[in-house]
Amino acid sequence: MEDDFIANLSTEERLVFLKTMLMMIKTDARVDDRERALAHELMKTYNVSEFNEIFEQMQSKEALLTEIKNVIKERKKALLLLRELLIIVHIDDDFDEKEMIFIGQIAHVLNIDEDLVLELNQLVLDYKLIKLKSKKLMES
Amino acid sequence: METLIAKLKEQEKLYCEEKKKIEYLEVHYDNIEGVLKGSFQAATEEIKAYTSDISKMNLSELDLMATLVHENGHRENADIYHLEMSPEQIYNINQYDELGQKIRELLFRRNEYLKSGDINVFNNESKDFSYYSDALMKKEIDPYESARDPNSFTKEMSFIMNEVMNEWQQKYAPFYDEQNTSVAKEYFCRTGQYARANDENYDKAIKQILTIGGVDFNQYRTRDFQCHSAEIKKLNEIAQNGDKAQIAAAREKLIREGVTVIPSLQATPSQKRNGYLTRHNPRSSLSLEKDAGKIVITKEEKIAALTKQGIFDGTEDEKDLEMFGCNKDMVIHYKETPKKKKIPDLSDENFIVKPSAKNVESSSNGAENSQKTTASPSVAKRLKELRGLVKRDESLGNGAGKIMQKQLDGRLLMTTMRQQTRY
Question: Which end of chain A has the smaller Cβ count within 10 Å, N or C?
């Protein structure tokens, strides 16, 4: 399920995943070209076409947190959402405090304890380091 | 929440430090006719590896990488030759340095074996590690089991320490006498009256050399090296008991005979407190050889070297000369073929997989997935939940993970790059 998890999400869940990730991208209050391009990639990946509608007219953070709580009921999907968010923040090397706070809030509404957040974050970082090392080797 | 933020920041900091370590060392390869596989020059901080052997066969990528691991180990240990010690102790330290690098080579091959299961990784041309593959086949050691079971781990690490030392002493020690001697002479010329025996520094240097991949192999060592060089023993006596004039005279004599002192700086006050006399001045990258050319070692020079080592005594016939490659000159050809290589980091304490709570928990995933250690048993439940969410060596799923993978592969966000170039 984990590799092809998007296919197993309902339309409602997929939208919540996407909106949460877009909210994460907009967390630092400025959206540059790079972040806009990342958002486009996500829309493509999640097979959602209403980019402007979702990206430009985001609901409030509080409303989104409530929606997450109401829609994401399965534990596995909650973990997958958190994983997606941690990947998003690590796509560039600038995991700032606002993003960390947002991660903490999402984890709270998803009932994921802090230790598990840290484990998952570490695994994403480890994955990234291994990919970087592998890339360096392949470049030689 | 505050605790979480602080811990996330700590993770981020450690990640950034780790990322910094992923760096290139510039290494150059030469084509060579000869038996040398590689070398490290402390004076120039230069590692060389040779792509072909005497038969002009190209060495495998594995053998080249093992050579780089070996030579890079010398590079990492370069500072120990600046600790206060006697010439005799430095002579022995040079032997430990070689021994340590042989252990590194074996550990590098062992990790390749853990990844591939291919026992042929131990079969290098010199058959240096056949005792390990033999023990593996006889099931006397099992590196997979060592990743899980502390008893198996201790048994294997002890086996590695003592068998590599046996093999090295029998096979290589006689050939390194000249190098050990020249290193000890250089040290004496550099430090003079300060070249005093210091057991604390001696033990510290051995421990540094033999701490590899997070394992202190020194704890498994059952014996010490001995210095058999009469020349160094004499020099040792002068350094310990001679007066200033005698020491100065001995230094001058060695320098007249051609000993070159490696350029080094005075130790800083804090280094002095830690036992250093001088300090190694490492460079961030290794220089490339610019000029192509060749070095010729004549057969007479080779005979003289073997005579000096006591291997030849003047009674050798043509067959003996041929056996030792002394029937013809040796020509070393240099070729400008620079490449960039990332040398595996055996100073990384996680290089050797060790038995731990997490390793036991995730043993079914193989040793490769067990490199990060997490001691607390309470993580077992969380790890169970996380299993499958992140496969470190494969993928992070088909969502954002796919985007990250493309980005890390350099295939991502072309639109972004195009947009950015506008600014």
Answer: N
How near does any CA of chain B get to the CA of A84, in Å?
6
Residue carrying structure tokens 């073997």? B306
Q: Say what the pTM is.
A: 0.55
In a domain, B3, yes or no: no
Together in a domain, B103 and B210: yes
Q: Residue B5 falls within a domain, yes or no?
A: no
Tell whether B277 and B386 lie within a shared domain. Answer: no
Domain that holds residue B400: 370-421
Domain count, chain B: 2
Q: Is residue B228 part of a domain?
A: yes
Nearest to B399 among A6, A114, A126 (CB): A6
CATH at residue A101: 1.10.3680.10
Q: Is B137 on the interface with A (CB under 8 A)?
A: no
Sheet holding B337-341, edge to edge: B38-41, B46-50, B25-30, B337-341
* B373 contact residues in A (CB cutoff 8 A): none
How do residues B181-227 score in pLDDT, each as one tens digit?
Answer: 999 999 999 888 889 999 999 999 999 999 999 999 999 999 999 99
Name the token pair of B232.
Answer: 């160094």
CA-to-CA distance for A4 and B60, rounded, in angstroms? 38
Domain limits at A130? Answer: 5-139
* Per-residue model confidence as pLDDT tens digits over B84-103: 999 999 999 999 999 999 99
